[in-house]
Amino acid sequence: xxxxxxxxxxxxxxxxxxxxxxxxxxxxxxxxxxxxxxxxxxxxxxxxxxxxxxxxxxxxxxxxxxxxxxxxxxxxxxxxxxxxxxxxxxxxxxxxxxxxxxxxxxxxxxxxxxxxxxxxxxxxxxxxxxxxxxxxxxxxxxxxxxxxxxxxxxxxxxxxxxxxxxxxxxxxxxxxxxxxxxxxxxxxxxxxxxxxxxxxxxxxxxxxxxxxxxxxxxxxxxxxxxxxxxxxxxxxxxxxxxxxxxxxxxxxxxxxxxxxxxxxxxxxxxxxxxxxxxxxxxxxxxxxxxxxxxxxxxxxxxxxxxxxxxxxxxxxxxxxxxxxxxxxxxxxxxxxxxxxxxxx
Length: 344
Fold this sequence. Notes:
This protein is of the alpha/beta class. It has nine helices and nine strands.
């Protein structure tokens, strides 16, 4: 059993690489011909660039929120909805400008006519900003709290987004019903789902959940690739809060990314939803040059219970004691004789 545990630990180590930020080679910054330039850049980014960007972001966001809520007071109509959608696109574009974003959209988002789901790989909440800067989407995702929850409840909910709690099975069942009702509405914004269910470091593409692929809808894959020359935009939510992550983005020189809208895909005859999800995942991983791995991203949210750890420790201790007892001679019997060399 302990050999099996060792193999599982090796797999777990490979799994953890999907959720760790890329580490740049810091020692080279202290080379004599680079130290001064690197130090000046560090001071500029943290003492000048970050405060200026943060101030502009606060002003832009306050203006956006005030204007957005003023238009929310209007009577519901298609014109009101279009105005709110344009405001959201404007705010997302302002975000990209503030982080000096260089985003290349290949082909642009195709026009849809209902019963269509966009699926994309997921690295951070910046994905929502990058994609919403071109057109509005109705997102399907985990319900958050705090600042992210405020934007979900009071901003994004205006665009028929669907939020759920992954820990509640009943809530997930209701989500499926709401998604099917949304797809049946030809006037609703297209759905966008991140089937990985969690943020991955944009070097790997983990398992796609089958939920978005068993709806009988046309699936449009979206591949997002961030270039980390000026910094890593990956958000490890367990290591940093959302405000800290925003500060991390604002101190980067630039955020560079490519976005590809691939050809629409439909489920083949005789193909299961799992096979359909794996096929679309392979297309996205190949286009974005990501390593395609079969791991379930939800596992990063689970930790072994203290009872499980205590049981494994107990079994390991019993195994060691048993091995020691087998290697020791029985009581009353002489141990192995020591042969002394005979002198001349």
